[in-house]
Structure prediction request, 376 residues.
Amino acid sequence: MTRNIVLFCLAVICGVAGWIFFTDSAPKKLQPPAVAPVAVTVAEVVQRELPISISTVGRTEAKVSVAVKSRLDGQVVEVDFAEGQAVKKGQLLMRFDSAVLDAQRRQAEGVLARDEAQLTRIKADYQRNLALVKQGFISQSGLSQSAADFHAAEANLRADRASLDNAQLQLSYTRITAPINGVAGALMLPVGGAAKFNDTTLLVINQIQPIYISYSLPESQLAQLKQAMRKADVAVRATVAGISQPLLGKLTFVDNTVDPSSGSITVKAEFSNADRALTPGQFAQVELEVGRLANALVVPKEAIESGVQGPYAYVVSKDMTVAIRQLSLGAETANFRVVNSGLVAGEQVVMTGQAGLRNNAKVTISATPSVSLSQP
Prediction:
């Protein structure tokens, strides 16, 4: 009996020891590591008046561009302008060799003087014959011949004057003057160069005060643009590389045809360019204000994300967690988007850092937004 009791105790002791051994050696369940908050920047949802604008890219172009060409065959003997210089209409730019044309002008003057003298003589004969025919000293046919000679001399004189006018006109073409106010381009025919009539371009003059910025808009925005033009002048703001301040102008031209190949229409805005800061051919970022929305709920475009269920934004709660909020969006402008539903004024939305977020994720606000929503 005692032996059985001892064996039983040994068995119990072994069982307890085995249980403890296997319990301690079993793998323990690991706790997930704590997730660090995501650093984000936020912007407050505000309600205010919002300008509605259209943004696009355009290119500057001269209001008027004239390729100055020779109006005769001739050789350049003098250049009277500096490349890149501002020139006035009528200012002398170049002179051609005028020796031959000057000789032709003097010849025409001589012919005119000779025929004027002949006309004076023939006119006196005609007037004398008028008196003689009344006295019967000459016949009527003689008077008719005298009258014909007189009228022929008058016609010759008119032809002589036309020849002189033409000679003077051709001589004037040897002086190349500026046809418009503008800026002279590069000289394309130096002194000694030979020009051909209406073929050789001597230089190009661009009128850049004022200057145009030309750009294309999709036809879907044409109705909105025309509606704005009917109300008032459409203000245009242009940003050009290298110029610190935006330039202000106004819409002055909408083409009369939509390009069927691209579905766009050409539009031009005029800028005073008083300081000649703009040069034809530059690129410009253009923004047209076509209306305003009152009491619009506004967020930066950076806060809007796109998902399977449509646009959404991350809204920051008071406990510094974020929640995904599905949005219904309205009009957009250069930096902002109107929210029709899904947000409330005063809420904070995430602008940067969305890539590391999920629903209910913890966040820390690392900076203030770089875009102000309180100003139009």
Summary: The mean pLDDT is 84. Helices lie at 2-25, 99-135, 140-172, 222-231. The longest strand covers residues 46-69.
